[in-house]
Amino acid sequence: MQQAAVVTGERAREADFDSLVGPHLEAGYRTALAILRDPDEAHDAVQEAAFKAWRRIRQLHQAGSARAWFLAIVANQCKSTRRGRWWNVVRLPQVQQAGPDPDSTRADVARALAKLPADDRLALFLHFSLDLPLEEVGTVLGLSAAGAKTRVYRAAKKLRPELEMN
Asked: Most buried in the list 59, 126, 162, 164, measured by CB within 10 Å?
């Protein structure tokens, strides 16, 4: 009798996980890729984050905040990955794809974004690329909504001079 209850509870947890976190796996990957800048590392980070989310699904109190909750786990996993010793020691060369050069505006934006601190880049990415509202950006970054708004505003302000035409 007790074993049947455990199996039923396990299936319910899997169903909850699939419906709550499953739709946000792509956003999690894009977030990890923005932080780590390595597709393989991003896949690994999202997989590890998904496992941690599955184990902690009972900590999610409101289904509406599942995206921000999961992306916060992804961001924390990426930060843990970056803190690893091998990350600081081993640097793999950037592989350039053969073909036409990217359009100059895109290259200018990418160069300007690369000059920003990682926290500023992440705030801009979450808000403008993933279209997260400021409340969810704050949740992912561990800030209030007002703090997230300030971070996005200041990051955009730092980016603006780099993009101005002379």
From this structure: 126
Do residues 133 and 99 make contact, with C-beta atoms less than 8 angstroms apart? no
In the chain, which residue ranges form alpha helices assigned H by DSSP? Answer: 2-20, 25-36, 39-55, 66-83, 85-89, 104-115, 118-124, 134-141, 145-163
Measured CA distances, 87 to 34, 80, 84, 92, 114 (Å) = 16, 10, 6, 10, 18
pLDDT tens-digit profile of 113-149?
888 888 898 898 888 888 889 998 998 889 999 999 9
CA distance 125 to 73: 16
Taking the model in full, what pTM does it have? Answer: 0.60
For the stretch 45-89, pLDDT in tens is 999 999 998 888 887 777 778 888 899 999 999 988 888 755 455
Eight-class DSSP state of 97 = P
